[in-house]
Fold:
Amino acid sequence: MASSVEHEQVLNSARRKSYRRLLPLLVLCYIIAYVDRANVGLAKLLMQKDMPAFNDAVIGFGAGVFFVGYFLLEIPGTLLCEAWSARKWISRIMVSWGIVAAATAWVKTPTQFYVVRFILGLAEAGFFPGAIIYMTHWFLNRDRTRALGIFMISTPIAQLASPKISSWLLSLGTTARPGPLGLVGWQWMYIAWGLPAVILGFVVLFFLTDHPNEAGWLTAEERQALGEELAKERAMRLAKHRMTAWEAVAHPKVLLLALAYFCVVTGNYGLEFFLPSILQQWYGLELSKLTWLLLLPPTMALTATLLVGWNSDRTGERRLHAALPALIGGVALALWPLTRGHLPLTMACLMITAAGLKCYLAPFWALPSLFLSKNAAASSVGLINSLANLGGFLGPSVLGFAQTQTHSYVGGIYFMAFCMGIYSMIIIALRLGRKDEDREGRGFEPIMAEPAESRQST
Structure:
């Protein structure tokens, strides 16, 4: 009995150290990744003044073509993380995307913009699912959704951190009065947000550790205890699931999850890339006031993400926690155009929408591992993320095209709300993540989740 208690104490010490050592850096990396892919939404406000050819259709297509490049290398990158070294692959990704993101400062034509955004997608492909796979190398079932939830708050943190910093960078120079090195503000914004990715890429290489048995920052006893527990969980999953990686990517539930995620990503990125432009068009806001208002939606999203993740862990329920927030957010988005002329109501609907577009993520990413083993889960995560992120191409393209053709964003907004509703209906219909499932037939032994009665978190 004493040895069992001692083992648990050593294991808990290893778990705590893993949280403190790994998650802060992963969160910081994802914050920079999210800013680098989404900062075009603010940059366009000044790019369009300097380069009139960059209308909303051009910006929308360029913002979205990032995800075409992302799609092409997503699955190979995810498999490399599993088979080779997640640490080295994530490091490579960050250095290359930081260089390309900074290079956006020198685009002069729409074609150059499209090329750079496409290459940026190629460079960043594999980071997000690679980080998810990396966490399966370190966090036990009881910890994984909690760790994933902490990782997911990166996006609202990025949205909180970037507007005021970007606003200051945009003020560094104009065409009439260039800033340092003869560059204008939007050029400095791309450069200043790209360079941290390069620096963090080298930090990742030397600071992260691929597996517990390589961690010099754990004691020998901690390495052994954590490694043994992870190995036991892997053995249990392999005994139950013999699905190959290729079988996983063709599994109907994986394909439906990809379709669902495609729909919600369409709404998410369409809104994020054009939100500053929509608010400016509706209310004629100055940049300084606009960037203050842009802090409100991610504040709501951050709070909701933490609450939904906590309640999903507390109850052991995943499906409704993944579906209902997006459904509520879609309804708020559909009501959004009706609030035009009433800024407080506009912001209230926007905050609810933003919460719905973020807080579903941790429960959603727990779903694939409810019925897939390690290698199959790695393949499915890459497939779901790569196919679904093509919605990041569709959403901005549709919204930009709609505005260019009709001089209004309303049609595009309704389209995004509809997509969010489709996502929710698919997740509800899939019947995954229910506590009362029969694990011998309809249900499956979870990887990222555990029954409520035995789970501490994730």
